[in-house]
Amino acid sequence: MRTVFRDDHEHFRTQVQRFIEREISPFHAQWEKDGIVPKSVWAKAGQEGLLNCMLPEPYGGGGDFGHSAVLIEELGKVNATGPGFNLHSEIVAPYIFRYGTPEQKDRWLPAMASGNIIGAIAMTEPGTGSDLKAVRTTAQREGDHYVINGQKTFITNGLNADLVIVVCKTDPDLGAKGISLICVDANTPGFSKGRKLEKIGLHAQDTSELFFDNVKVPVSNRLGEENAGFSYLMHELAQERLVIAVRAAASIESFLEKTIAYTRDRKTFGQSVFDYQNTRFKLAEAKAQSTMLRIFVDQCIALHLDKALSPAQAAMAKLNATDMQGRLLDMFLQMHGGYGYMSEYGIGQAWIDARIGRIYGGSDEIMKEIIARTL
Predict the structure, then answer these.
(1) Active site residues
(2) Which DSSP string do the residues of 142-191 spell out, in sequence order?
(3) How confident is the model over 167-191, as pLDDT tens digits?
(4) Nearest-CA neighbor of 162 among 194, 215, 119, 123?
C-alpha cells in the first residue's frame, strides 16, 4: 500500500485518468506524426484543473506536489510524452510563483492555469549542454529595459510557448553570479522560434530552437533579483529531477504489468513465454527492483511535500529511476520479441522515449557530481 497520497490525491487521479482516456490516448499517435500537441488540448486541461495544480488559487488548482505527482504518473503509465504539462506546471510556473512580483503572478499564472498561456524555460544553448554557467545569451540593461541577444536549443514546448523564461547573462564578467531569469512574451519583436527539432523519440513533443535578436523587454519582466538567477535555478532543479524520477518509476510499473500480461498470452514451442523459468526470473527481478525504486521515490515525494527534499536526494532519485527505466524497458521489449519492435504494442516507443531521461534535467554525470559532493 502506498501511503504518500491522500484521498483527495486519489480522487484527482480518477479525474486525470478520465481526461487522458478521453482527450489524450485516442489522439496521441496523430500528435506523434504531427510533432506537436494542439493548443486546444491545453485549454481543455486548464478547464479540468490539470494545469498549475500544485499552486494555490487563483494561480492554480489549490493543490500540492502530490496532485502534480498523480498527473505525472498517469501520463507516464500510458507514455503520453507529447503534452508538456509537467514542464509548464511543475517547472515554469513555480519560478514565477516563487520569484515573481504580485503583478507578475497576476499577469501570467491565472492564464497559465487556464491553458491560455503555455510556458517554456530556455536554459540550454548550442555547445553548453548541462553547464548553465557557460550560457552566452546576454541581457544588456538600457534604462528600464533589457536587450536580449542569443540562441537556445532543445526547448520543450518551444513552438507552442507563449511565455518563455530565458536564462541569460546580465553581467558576463561574473560567470554564474551574473545570470538572471527574464520572461519574454512570444510576440516580442526580435524573438523567433526556429525549426521543430527532429528527435529519435518524444515525437509528439514540440522541441525547438529559440532566437533572440535585440529583443527588448521591460526590466519588470525579470524574475527576482538581477544576477541571482543561478541560485534560483539550483533551488528549483531538485523538483524538476523528482518529476523525471516519478515519471520513470510509473513507466516501469506500467510496462512491467503489460509485459507480464503479454508473456502469459504469447505461446512459443507449445507453452506461454511466461512459463519459461528465465522469463519468470527476469520479471521477478524487475518487480523487486521496481518495488525498491517505488519506495524510494515515494519517500522523496513525501520529503518534497514537507519541503525537505535535498538536491542530492533528487539527484539519486533521477539517476536510479532513469537508469532502471532504460534497462528494464529494454528487457521488456526483448520479451515481446519481434512485436516489441512494432509500434502497435507501445513498448518500443516507450523504450526510445525513455533514453532522454539520462540526459535532460541534468545528465547522469551531473547527478553523480551532485551526489559525490555530499560524500
Answers:
(1) 240
(2) ETTEEEEEEEEEEEETTTT-SEEEEEEESSGGGGGGGEEEEEEETTSTTE
(3) 999 999 998 899 999 999 999 999 9
(4) 119
